[in-house]
Amino acid sequence: MNFGLNDDQQMLRDSFARFLDSESSMSRVRQALEGEGFDPALWSGLADLGTFAMRVPEEAGGLAMGTLDAALVLEEAGRTLALGPIAEAILAARLIALTTGEGIDAVIAGEQVATLAFRDVAEEPVQWLNGGDRADLVIARHGDDLVMVAPADAHRRVDETLAANGIAEVDLGRAPRTVLASGPEALALFAAALEEWKLLTACQLLGLAREAVRLAAAYACERKAFGVPIGTFQAISHPLANFITEIEGGRAFAWKAVHMVATGEPQAGAAISLALWWAAKVASTSAIQSLRTFGGYGLTTEYDIHLYNLRAKATALVWGDSARLLEEAGRRLYAGEPAVLPDVGPVSIDFDLGEDARALAAEVDRFFEETLTPELKAHAHYSWDGHHPAVHKKLAEAGLLFPELSPAQGGRGASPYARYAAADVWEEHGWSGHARGTTMMAAAMIDKFGTDELKAEVLTRILAGEAVCSLGYSEPGSGSDVFSAQTKATPDGNGWRIDGTKMFTSGANLADYVLMLCRTNPDVAKHKGLTMFIVPLMADGIEVQPVHTFQDERTNITFYDNVKVPDTWRIGPVDGGVRAMSAALELEHGGGGFAKAHGLLIRMAEDLAREIRFAGKPLIEDPAAQVRLARARAHHMVGEMLVLRSLWSVEEKQDLPACGPMAKVFTSEKFLEDGSDLLDLTAPLSLSKRDGAAAHVNTAYRHAHGTTIYAGTSEIHRSMIAERALGLPRTRA
Questions:
Q1: What one-character-per-residue DSSP string does 441-468 give?
Q2: Considering the domain boundaries, does residue 221 fall inside one?
Q3: pLDDT per position as a tens digit, 11-65
Q4: At 530, phi and psi to the nearest 5?
Q5: Which parts of the sequence belong to the Acyl-CoA dehydrogenase/oxidase C-terminal domain (predicted)?
Q6: What are phi and psi of 11, to 5 degrees?
Q7: Among 162, 478, 481, 441, which Cα is nearest to 307's?
């Protein structure tokens, strides 16, 4: 798997970034907007860099670069608000080169501005065009012909527009035109170019959105209110954290869509539509929030943020209402509507998990197929209640319980990719990984910080699949603020006495040990007086009481009264629990999010939509239902990209700030959002808990609530994202 750019692409992006920082500076953009809404020097400079030759074949005098390369340029163009129909001109040049070649040199050289018309001129002769205020050439469809139209000023109606970015209404029916090609192949070339335009425009919008959020974050660090930077207020920082997450996921999704086209994946056409829909939505909403960060100053023309706000809204709307893209994606996903896909050229990025991952997933699949009897399948549950000691031990004996561990520890030395692929199989078989996950965290802490005695007595049993561990972090009065723990550990001879209460100790009724955070020094700052222990749950003085949730899960409240543990069962130094705890939380935050559960929810909702009748036909044939399912698909694809991006960063040791929290908060929040919407869509059948898809949609809605709380609430993760990815000040004491 590879989310990175090769050296040539990095050089390409850096070159265009430097050029556009200079030639599309905000002063230059403002100067052009105050004049004719176009910068001829910028256009000429772009031509000199080979922009308009990027997608032209070498034999026609071009650079024969791929769609992804052009997307990198468009992202920088969006970041700097570069004026002109750049994406359209790139694709117009390609269409000319692939047909007659007439006038290609002038377009590549930037001597003539070329753009695209999105709709059949024979049906809609008057159209809004990007660059329509000055385009010398327009490539369009006219019935069965691919034509080049040469509009004059008399054919244009140039109004003042929302973003003053050169869009105009052009009467293409009255302008002279030349036929470039005719017939199905010509129309397919044009249709493919429009699909590529969606990909390039998506990246342009995401580049714009990223810069808008960056400007807002920088302002939030400088502007003070009530004596502190406004970025310390969660009402400011958390929305920006949401948007930088959605932007990062959207960019990876757009790249994924390019890759899907290159590899011929069946849903590539739908992915293109969804990528632009998502980018348009995120760009507009993030620019609005970014402007609001500036308060009243954002409304003034002195600050650049208003330019981003207006351009974010206007860029995709030249195509029309972006909600139509969801309708288009719905038809492509559920009504068999075909899409003509572009030849995207070479694609260096790769989202394949690899042969090792497939091999491990296949082995895990065989294990479950051979092991899970009807009785065990009936026992399965998505919570701790699905834990089965015999299956747990068999997994350990097969080296499949903790495959990420070394062979010497009973694992496979599996990469994050392989572990992710294996976890997908657990999800498909409906087998709970709760005990595995928390026990792995405890094992990692013991291995890193534990004493030799603790490793011999506990870690050995864990690795053999003979013991499982729960987590004792939360308390009745602290919730996600784990460093406020009041459960006391006081010295007692050669060991410790533990007294207190832990809340949400899930699995404590089934586990052998609990990984516990205790206060060992009440006289220092709360995060400095904590120590971690492994506590055997069979010790005297421990009481476990059930707490049932509306998710059909059991968690527990656990009471500790004069519980004795030896000092050798301490993890790390006394009062040094924050270091160990932070390592544990990093493991939990990097756990992959909830994209798998989200994807399964969508598949079950699709099954219900095929079963439910609406207006005399299956619900899935209803366009409104298709839109909602397509929207959920977009959310899932973005979330999956965030998860894979996080895995890649771990495997390749890439510094991607807050990528784990981004994956967790996005996938859990969208799981809940779509869990609610798809329950609505498939009601009233989804209200039933009858076996099959209905029960799954019903359960997923309830389960999704907890995912926004597990491993720290979404609010905690948003603070982490704001601080790490945007450089905002701390929002937590």
A1: HHHHHHHHH--HHHIIIIIHHHHTTS--
A2: yes
A3: 999 999 999 999 999 999 999 999 888 999 999 999 999 999 999 999 999 999 9
A4: -120, 150
A5: 192-333, 603-725
A6: -65, -40
A7: 162
- The tokens for 275 are 């990528």
DSSP class of 729: P
Distance between CA atoms of 428 and 200, rounded to whole angstroms? 35
Query: 231 and 275 share a domain?
Result: yes
Does any domain span residue 733? no
Q: Which pLDDT tens digit goes with each residue over 190-216?
A: 999 999 999 999 999 999 999 999 999
* CA dihedral sign of residues 476, 479, 481, 483: positive
- Beta partners for residue 557, in sequence order: 503, 545
Instruction: Give the up-direction half-sphere exposure of residue 732: CA atoms within 13 A in the CB hemisphere.
Output: 17
| Number of helices (H), then strands (E), in the chain | 24, 19
* Residue-wise DSSP of 472-527: E---TTTTT-GGG---EEEEETTEEEEEEEEE--TTTTT-SEEEEEEES-TTS-TT
CA distance 488 to 501: 9
- In 3D space, the residue among 571, 636, 580 whose CA is nearest the CA of residue 603 turns out to be 636
Give the dihedral of Cα atoms 640, 646, 648, 650; nearest 10 deg: -150
Question: Same domain, yes or no, for 601 and 720?
Answer: yes
pLDDT of residue 710: 84
Regions of the chain with pLDDT less than 50: 589-590, 733
Write down the pLDDT at residue 733: 39
DSSP 8-state class, residue 53: G
**What is the reported pLDDT for 493?**
94
Q: What gap in Å lies between CA 471 and CA 483, rounded to an integer?
A: 14
User: Do 205 and 324 sit in the same domain of this protein?
Assistant: yes
> Count of CB atoms within 10 A of residue 688's CB?
13
Residues 219 and 326 in one domain: yes
State how far the alpha carbon of 500 is from the alpha carbons of 360, 442, 476, 559, in Å.
43, 20, 10, 6
Give the DSSP letter of residue 455.
I
Exposure string over 6-19, b if 16+ CB within 10 A, otherwise e:
eeebeebbeebbeb
CATH number of residue 558's parent domain: 2.40.110.10
d(CA 44, CA 47): 5
Same domain flag for 411 and 472: no
Please give the backbone phi and psi of residue 275, each rounded to the nearest 5 degrees, phi first.
Answer: -65, -45
* Pairing of the two strands 114-116 and 137-142: parallel
Residue found by looking up tokens 């992006």 in the block: 13
The amino acid that residue 396 corresponds to is A
Contact 287, 212 (CB under 8 A): yes
**Which residues constitute the domain of residue 399?**
377-432
Q: What are phi and psi of 691, to 5 degrees?
A: -55, 145
The answer to whether 275 and 303 have CB atoms below 8 angstroms apart is no
Judged on CB neighbours under 10 Å (0-12, 13-18, 19+), 491 is exposed
Are residues 720 and 631 both part of a single domain? yes
Q: How many CB atoms lie within 10 A of CB 433?
A: 17
Domain assignment of residue 290, yes or no? yes
Tokens representing 12? 């390409």
| Cα distance between residue 614 and residue 621, in whole Å | 9
**Do 603 and 564 share a structural domain?**
no
Q: Indicate the SS3 state at residue 34.
A: helix
The strand ranges marked E within 567-696 are 570-571, 613-614, 617-618
Of 404, 432, 460, the residue that ends a domain is 432
Co-location of 688 and 556 in the same domain: no
Whole-number pLDDT of residue 481: 74
CB count in 10 Å sphere of residue 225: 11
Look-up of token digits 């097969």: 398
Q: What per-residue confidence (pLDDT) applies to 584? A: 61
- Residue 708 CA to residue 721 CA, distance in Å, equals 15
Total number of domains constituting the chain: 4
Domain boundary among 274, 302, 334: 334
What is the chain's length?
Answer: 733
- Number of CB atoms found within 10 A of residue 230's CB: 21
One-letter amino acid of 415: S
- Residue 610 CA to residue 612 CA, distance in Å, equals 6
